[in-house]
Design a protein that fits this description.
Structural class: alpha+beta
Number of helices: 3
Strand content: 5-15%
Order of helices and strands: EHEHH
Shape: globular
Number of strands: 2
Strand order of the largest sheet: 1-2
Distance between the termini: 31 Å
Oligomer: single chain
């Protein structure tokens, strides 16, 4: 397997295994043809973001055991869709991100300078 790159040009870092995140539920914010949402932004979700995305029709707080989704709470690490993160940024509610775990494909949707402003400290 070819190693994938993050937005900084280095090897993509593991984002989270508890809860298991990523389109492939392998802990990495990587993407492929089947991932139409491009789950490439490695975020640390906030309550404000969770409420925002729910208002847009994507409830990430409610567990859905049938699809092995535990539901998220503030502070959880999760791979977000690039366009949803950008929408949240434009609304002033984007959560912080981990640049080392954010896939380079995020740069198709969000400038690196913007991502760097939200780097988790």
């Amino acid at each position: 397997m070819v190693s994938e790159k993050n937005v900084l040009g280095a090897e993509l870092a593991l984002h989270c295994l508890s809860p298991k995140t990523g389109f492939y539920r392998d802990g990495y914010c990587r993407t492929g043809e089947a991932d139409t949402g491009r789950h490439v932004v490695a975020a640390i979700v906030t309550q404000e973001f969770l409420e925002f995305t729910k208002s847009r029709g994507n409830d990430l707080q409610t567990p859905r055991p049938m699809v092995d989704f535990p539901g998220l709470k503030a502070g959880d690490r999760w791979c977000l869709c690039a366009l949803r993160w950008r929408e949240a940024h434009e609304a002033g509610v984007a959560p912080p991100i981990v640049l080392e775990a954010t896939h380079e494909k995020a740069l198709k949707y969000i400038p690196l300078e913007t991502l760097k402003k939200y780097q988790a400290r």
